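hey m, so remember when u said the tokens were messed up on ur end? i reran from scratch. heres the input so u can diff it against urs
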Amino acid sequence: MQFEQRLRNGIHDGSITLAFRRWRRAQVVAGRDYRTGVGMVRAETVDIVTPDDITPDDARAAGHPDVASLLSYLRGDPELPLYRIRFRPLDGPDPRDKLAGTSALTSSEAEEVAARLARMDAASDRGPWTMAVLTQIADRPGVVSTRLADAIGWERADFKAHVRRLKALGLTISLDVGYRISPRGAAFLASPAATGLADASPGAGAAARPQPET
């Protein structure tokens, strides 16, 4: 689920507790935690409703002055199911941030990361990509994602989606512009396990190296 700025800010400052979405199938599950971009939230309830079920209190809880305003804000085919999701902000940091801050890895931990990356490579239509993207970010911290994607011949949106998978493993950190390798990512790249993965992915490291700028 995408948390637009209005929604994520409202959930975290307490002014919004409900969200409404038209989906073909539910994109969140009651009881699970989600990242909004500024913190963690829990989806407490997920219900299918009709527009007639929405009360003025529901509209205000979703950050709208009235039901008509809420309904006009909704996107998607009106024939799709309408979901009402109740969110609660969670205290504490994003677990990925704690993971990313790990500055040392045992050999077995590094090998486990390498195994996870190898599975991601094997499952991708692109073939081996994880070391290429990690090396690109390590070499060019704070560089806008458009340039990073261009350097390895990818579309920006696809590049960012793949980086999110590396971030979920605690290997990268998002900046206001671009990314940088996390302490955990740097520890992994310095390990023999990373060297082994790069050796098993011919051309991955070379593909990530930026061309000299003129």
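this time it looks ok to me. The two ends are 41 Å apart (CA to CA). if urs says something different then somethings off w ur setup not the seq
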